[in-house]
From TrEMBL:
Probably part of an ABC transporter complex. Probably responsible for the translocation of the substrate across the membrane. It holds the Pfam family BPD_transp_1. Gene3D superfamilies: MetI-like. It comes from Sneathiella litorea. This is ABC transporter permease subunit. PANTHER family: ALIPHATIC SULFONATES TRANSPORT PERMEASE PROTEIN SSUC-RELATED, ALKANE SULFONATE ABC TRANSPORTER-RELATED, MEMBRANE SUBUNIT. PROSITE patterns: ABC_TM1. It comes from the Bacteria. It is a multi-pass membrane protein. GO terms for cellular component: plasma membrane. One of its GO terms (biological process) is alkanesulfonate transmembrane transport.
Amino acid sequence: MSDKVADGTPMGKPVPFRGGGFLPRSRKIVAPILFIGLVAFWEWGARTGFISPLILPAPSEAFEAFKNLLSSGLLWQHLAASLQRLLIGWFCGTLLGVIVGTMIGLFSVARSGLQPLVSAIFPIPKIALLPLFIIWFGIGEGSKVATILFGTFFPTVIATYGGIDNVDRGLIRMGQSFGLSRMSIIRKIILPGALPAILSGARISAAIAIILLVAAEMIAAEFGVGAYILMAGSLMATDQLITGVAILSCLGLIFAWLIGRAEKYFLKWR
């Protein structure tokens, strides 16, 4: 028997695997290299005058400002105030958003009544409503938490009912054909199927919460990262300003890491 097919190609030639599904692979070394390279270029530019220190101080100067903030004890006061507002506002807004989004996704009456309302209010810049919240809740913590809650509520609602809408209807019909109750279908099929979209919405709403936190703290807040940044800008202390921005960036990274861990835990089936 010939070991070649009709076109002359040898039989038994290994074929490379083509079923990877475009799955991205993590290259953990890339991010640190890129970060170190950017910081090194920034430091070089600031020291050589290529970047004006009045516009953008060197990273070493920002690090000195961070050490002074840490040694003075003010860092923990600013962080404690900001984290309290951020966690309360984000958690309450996300929880309410998941509840309302689930109602819109599952019940026709809720969809007919609430979906147009959500679509109408969602595009409104939430920072523009901050003066109204101050009138309603006062200039203290209530208005700041309400701003964050309101801003995180709507993205979560849209992500939740969008995730429910995208659940494979074949799986739902399969559950019905096996005699599962409506509650079992919701608990075992719909909510697990919508969870990737819900967690993606939580990631987006966390970023929005940090943005609104800064805006809220720039109005009559004694402590908070936003208040620290506002004070630094008023004093033209750009090194302190960069320090405050770096702290916000670290908060965003921590939130993203926590949500990423939640995705790995809850979405093992994917």
